[in-house]
Amino acid sequence: MQEIRNNARKLMEPYCRVCPICNGKVCSGQVPGMGGLGSGSSFGNNLKALEKFKFNMRLIHQVTDPDTSVNILGKQLALPVFAAPIGGVSFNMGGKISEEEYAASIINGCKAKSIIGCTGDGVPEFIHLAGFEAIKNAGGWGIPFIKPWEDDELYAKIEKAQALGTDIMGMDIDAAGLITLKKMGRPVSPKPLDKLTEIVKKSGMKFVIKGIMTPEDAQLAVNSGADAIVVSNHGGRVLDHAPGSADVLEDIADTVKGKITILADGGVRSGGDVLKLLALGADAVMIGRPFSVAAIGGLQAGVETYIDSIKTELEQTMVLTGTSSASAVDKNILFAV
Fold this sequence. Notes:
Blueprint: H1 2-12, H2 41-51, E1 53-55, E2 70-72, E3 75-77, E4 81-83, H3 89-92, H4 99-112, E5 116-119, H5 126-137, E6 143-146, H6 151-162, E7 168-172, H7 179-183, H8 193-203, E8 206-212, H9 215-224, E9 228-231, H10 245-256, E10 261-264, H11 271-279, E11 284-287, H12 289-321, E12 334-336
Parallel strand pairs: 4-5, 4-11, 5-6, 6-7, 7-8, 8-9, 9-10, 10-11
Antiparallel strand pairs: 1-12, 2-3
């Protein structure tokens, strides 16, 4: 991983410095780029929210070979981990590899390790086209995410997604705040419940709504007929001064757990962070920027190496907390300060 990170640093500067601790301080306000919007507080709050939780170390038990596998949205996964939908290599990551290379590295690397990669959307067109092509070439093993466009573009992209061979798609509704897209003549917008229900139904697939940060929106997502939500503040890139995902996850899980699949992202940097979010109520976790660093620094091999690293860290943390299965994580493994 150190080799991969060193190579990524050379290729991504100044868009990302691949800091020893990826906390958004150096890159605050750098959007486009890999930073958080404005002061960068929402990016930082994701990490601070996770840091508040410590582990109760327990070693008088019989857990020596924990089961990290989970079944999410009908898919058997080796880890409760998804690569989050991220695109825009040319203006967010330095452009030293192509959008097509990036998307293929994420999708194929995840498939090789029996987890799922997601692809992003945006302006220009080649962002979503590269992701769609990667998923199609992988036999449909991936989740295409589209932004909350106006009707013509939205439904055209849903139709394209239906032809990829996947049975899951998503919409990062949290992208509704990306004013840059409006300035490019491609506006995105929030969706009222009746419209969201229509979109979910028209997709004809299992549908994931990314960008849920309140119990009220989580319940509305359930009401829309969606199959999963992602508790996410869009990596701190759309709204300054938002809470971290781990700050709101528990209340959201208390409201909709068992009614809808709950994914969460935001500041996840280790297998331990994955386990924290599972303990707070997530069924699985999305990871964003670290996957981007792995893909830029090592292409598919880099992505696979990163997944191996996360798996090792998760297994170790599960053993040290007495957690036998990733599909049944007890909240009592956490010590909240």
